[in-house]
Design goal:
Length: 483
Amino acid sequence: MKHSHSATEHNDGYSSLYRQIPSLHDLLLTPRFAALLETEPRTATIAATRIVLSRLKQEIGEGRHTPASLASALACVHATVADQIAQASRYSLRRVINATGVLLHTNLGRAPLSASALAHILETACGYCNLEFDLDSGERSRRDVHAEELLLQVLRPQGKEIIAQSALVVNNCAAATFLALNALAEGGEVIVSRGELVEIGGGFRIPEILAKSGAILREVGTTNRTRLSDYEDAISPATRLILRVHQSNFSMEGFIEKPALNDLVSLGKRCEVPVFDDQGTGLITSLEHHGIRSEPTLLHSVRVGADLIAASGDKLLGGPQCGILTGRADLVERIRKHSLYRAFRVDKLTYAALEATLMEYAMDKSSAIPVQRMLHASAEDIFRRCQWICEQVSSDHLVAEAVPVQSVIGGGTAPTARLQSAAVSLGHPTLPPLTLLLALRRFEPPVIGRIHEGQVLLDLRTVEPEFDTTLVLLLRTIDLSQA
Ligand SMILES: *Cc1c(COP(=O)(O)O)cnc(C)c1O
């Protein structure tokens, strides 16, 4: 049969290609591999060579090689193996350059840490530390102490002495919310406005968290309007908490109403029901001078007297991933005694980073915190940096132009707010935007941009200026890497 004949011919072609592939043993004896083995460990080299050879065989099997293409692949097989070794020794978790303009990008690790946070991590984690050890008494102590004092100091409203406040730290704000609900409201009712039954991202849904915590959700009001009287009418002997949830990642406009936090607090005081504010962002200083009025601060929640407040450590606070619970000492103490606190507690790295971040606020040096610096960077300065980069990288192969853009804060913060910013807009004569974006991600370090109206944009608000030169060097290689 003609068909099977040609198939055999085909297979014969393949087997002659297969025969071109040297054995591992022979390869290792070649001068180039001998040179490779002088710098690379033998086991890693052998493992990488096996992978490269089997990949070649697979490519032959898939009909992807001609004698010529195979010959050129074999001519540089030592280089391919060297790449493979480099890849195998690369960490999975890597530093990237965030040029998306999204300040708190959950997929990119949210807030970058300040230099002093990193130094404090290094200093305390490379040896032993007094995590749960009192240096005065020589006895065991609580790990909470490392953040509590500073937190209370940073959050103390000016001119107002708030007594009997306490704070503790858990793994993230989701854990803080769950723990507080479970410790304070299990078996009882928690009153929440229907406008605040939100999903925060990664499947963190308030009604589900409430159900899991063993508390009973008592919804009040409607999606768009909830009045103080709705809360008041729902209070009963079964009520354990009034929960206020920051809407974080969405906003409503139009016919809306909800009571101010201080009105809820007054109601709670009158009815002896604690008010728990899931504040979320951990924002310390107001964003008003960025024209963002809608974003409440953590200080505001403390000032108006919320009984308990939960916030994230790695959003606008600019610290490590953690959840902060602060408020009335008796409530915090009940949470601290709860058996799940042990499961949600954070490690010494987190305390070190959080303590150093809080210290920056306490010492009035919040501009040392990257998120704060990025928030405050002026659009003009960012534009000038973009212009400089464009001058350095524009060529026949790369069209680079500084353009005004708008950055967002991200991380569920002020979802409608925009910060005026600037970007390097990139175009390539042959690479379509998606391919260009991929080429940027293949850089070392990877550069994460975005596409807007068919243009690849690198928003420099989220790129620390010390990376501008790195960006230039990387962008200049774009054409080489595609050659
Ligand atoms: C972000 C956010 C959370 C979740 O915080 P994580 O630290 O990511 O767990 C919870 N509540 C609110 C209001 C938030 O904005």
